[in-house]
Amino acid sequence: MKKSFTLIELLVVVVIIGILAAVGTPVVTGFINSAKESTAKNSLLSICVIEADYHTENGDYYGTSTGDQTALINQKLFNGKKTLDEQGDYKYYIQRFNSSSYRAYAIPKKSNSGLEKICVDHNNEIRLGTRC
Fold first, then answer.
1. What is the pLDDT of residues 21-70, one digit of tens each?
2. Beta-strand (E) ranges in the chain?
3. Is the dihedral of CA 121, 127, 88, 46 positive or negative?
4. Element (H, E) at 53
5. Is the CB of residue 15 less than 8 Å from the CB of residue 23?
6. How high does pLDDT run on average in the chain?
7. Which residues of 6-26 are buried (b: 16+ CB within 10 A; e: fewer)?
8. pLDDT value at position 1?
């Protein structure tokens, strides 16, 4: 006699897999978003380092217009090196207030991505969300 699974047993397995998928998806998404935000923070800190050099050489900070200025920042501040990911989930720009202060921004390209807006100022202070 052949042994096989009953319909009830198969349904129980399907339900368990569904529950695990429902619980696991938000957790994995949270880890992915956290990694993307960490990358954006590191990119902003790279901007801080290069801005300090720029300020030493020019007596001023570099600034851009708002919007996606990622490629321009790579070209002007990083001498054409693709330090900032131009195809990534964040767009970058630098708001220069005066010759002694600026704020660099990492803005999610998609507003419904669940990613936080991140900014850093000339004192290397990182802020998130509405604090930017």
1. 888 777 777 899 999 999 999 999 999 999 999 999 999 999 998 899 99
2. 90-98, 101-108, 118-121, 126-128
3. positive
4. helix 7-58
5. no
6. 92
7. eeeeeeeeeeeeeeeeeeeee
8. 65
Secondary structure of residue 106 in the 3-state scheme? strand
- The ranges assigned to domains in the chain are 8-131
Whether the predicted pLDDT of 4 surpasses 70: yes
What sign does the dihedral 116-92-47-43 (CA atoms) show?
positive
Helix residue spans in 59-107 (DSSP H): 70-76
Amino acid identity, residue 56?
A: T
Quick one: tokens of 4? Answer: 């096989």
Return the CATH fold of 8-131.
Fructose-1,6-Bisphosphatase; Chain A, domain 1 (3.30.540)
In the predicted model, what is the mean pLDDT of residues 69-76? 96
